[in-house]
Amino acid sequence: MLKTTLLEAVQAGAGVLKKYFNGSFKISHKEGINNLVTEADHAAEKIIIDTILKNHPNHFILGEESGERQTDSDYKWIIDPIDGTVNFAHGIPLCCVSIALEKKGEIILGAVYNPLINELFFAEKGKGATLNNHHIHVSNQTSVLKSCLVTGFPYTYLDSSNGPLQVFERLIRLGIPVRRLGSAAIDLCWVAAGRFDGFYEHKLEAWDSAAGYLIVEEAGGRVTDFTGDSFSPYQPHVLATNGKIHEELRSFVNNTR
Ligand code: IPD
Ligand code: CA
Ligand code: CA
After folding, report:
1. Which of 5, 28, 51, 131 is most exposed by smallest CB count within 10 Å?
2. 154 C-alpha to ligand 2 centroid (Å)
3. Does the annotation count 83 as an active-site position?
4. pLDDT classification of 168: cutoffs 50, 70, 90
5. Any idea which fold 144-254 has?
6. Ligand 1 center to residue 184 CA distance, Å?
7. How far apart are the first and last CA of the chain?
8. Largest alpha-carbon pair distance within the chain?
């Protein structure tokens, strides 16, 4: 039932993305001039939440655009109606709906769907991860120097030692390919599918990372914060790899290598 609701909600949100993509829609700005929100983000979040509450009226909801709908339920849905909104607003087909379900603080289900290239990633705790119903697995790469990595940058410049630009420069100076797709949820799923060997980002929110986290772990990868502690969607630093390059990539990020 929970899985059915998740898939129904993700499909409903994706229908909105498809409807608006490359069409005309209202765009407004959140804090930071390029942190956009479109009419489609609001419409997708509404239909996702309506779908969940129709089946589970008592569940707790955390949505990027509408905030928290708190209840005392053990179940909490974490929703990013469009991850990759800047791509979406520019007609770049790298964006998705991302939804995770937490039970008593543990993420038990996750789905990330990019309807524009028809890729549905799904994971259930303990049952593996799939892409369009086929099981996926992380890569076998054992060296950061031979890896293909992906990262993202926050909308407002983060000036700190080992900040996003410093880590990026460190890797690029060594000739390591580091891509930047513009959707953290897709970045994580592409690590799960073995397309990338690792991903790191300095400032993510729960709705960016929660579903992708489970998909990476269930595909055999590892996700932690930058200290190597267990992942929590409620802290900003996300390091996700195939497991084999995890400690080495962590040392690049922290400049301790
Ligand atoms: C953003 C994307 C991007 C990441 C940003 C996020 P949004 O989410 O995931 O890849 O670098 O930090 O805010 O705004 O498109 O939902
Ligand atoms: Ca997001
Ligand atoms: Ca979003």
Report:
1. 28
2. 10
3. yes
4. very high
5. D-Maltodextrin-Binding Protein; domain 2 (3.40.190)
6. 6
7. 47
8. 52
